[in-house]
Design goal:
Homodimer. This protein has 326 residues and is an alpha/beta fold. The protein is built from five helices and nine strands, in the order αβββαααββββββα. The strands form three sheets. The protein has a three-stranded mixed beta sheet with strand order 2-1-3, with no helix packed on it. The protein has a three-stranded antiparallel beta sheet with strand order 4-7-8. Strands 5-9-6 form a three-stranded mixed beta sheet, with no helix packed on it.
Length: 326
Amino acid sequence: MAGLLKTPSLHLTPTLLHAPSVPFKPFCVSFAGGRNTSVSLSRRASLRSVSSGYPLRLLNLVPFASGEAETTETEVESNEPEVQETDGAVDVENENAGAEEVEAEEEEAAVVTALLNSYKEALAENNEGKIAEIEASLKSIEDEKNLLADKVASLSNELSVERDRLIRISADFDNFRKRTERERLNLVSNAQGEVVENLLAVLDNFERAKSQIKVETEGEEKVTNSYQSIYKQFVEILGSLGVIHVETVGKQFDPMLHEAIMREDSAEYEEGIVLEEYRKGFLLGERLLRPSMVKVSAGPGPEKPREAEGEEVTAQGSAEEEASSS
């Protein structure tokens, strides 16, 4: 070890190894910023030329001049930072389509502006080949523009048709929902109506018994009160189901609600007014469970025939008196 330290330094030309050139692979990373714009970072990384740099590896250096020691194979790591390479790009979905459209329009405008400037220069230089090339490019841009305009018009028509179709479907669904709800309510009303119609006969029996019972003793009064409490509870249950009584006395006769079983002259009520109710009628919502049986006024009636009849009776009486006196 002491001999190695005392040995003078020997400057050797390093043995160059054949290092194949590394092809350049750029990488691109896209980030989505707060403004929804993609930022592209391009980085070029290349290795140093073999002729101008240091070798990556040194093999079997020659012995020192003293011959006291030999160096073994030594590996030298390059201090050059490693470059991470990516073969693809990280795509992030852009949430703002409007910003992309504006950016695309700006790029197209820049391309067209550059072509127009080149066209002016070619005209100034009288370069027919360049002029023809630029005109062909402008013609292709115009054709593409017309094609896109036709496509936009076609898509607009399809959108209008689909929008109308969606409106019709929404209206049909709304009508279907309303019709279904109406049918459901009618079904419930019909079921309740059938049950209540069968119970109306029981209600009539209670009212008939009430009108015929004559209470004479205290025991009979207690029994009558018990029946009346049951009747009252029964009426309250019908009311909770939506059953209402059809109004009759003093109201105009309605053939949809009333059933006339008798007509009678009346000086108090006009013609067509209900005078008396014989059987109650009931409604369940808008459904008529049964009509009311009523007596209807026929009006005051003829008065002149009655006066003439009175005069005839008076004349007949006076004639009889004359006959008896004679």
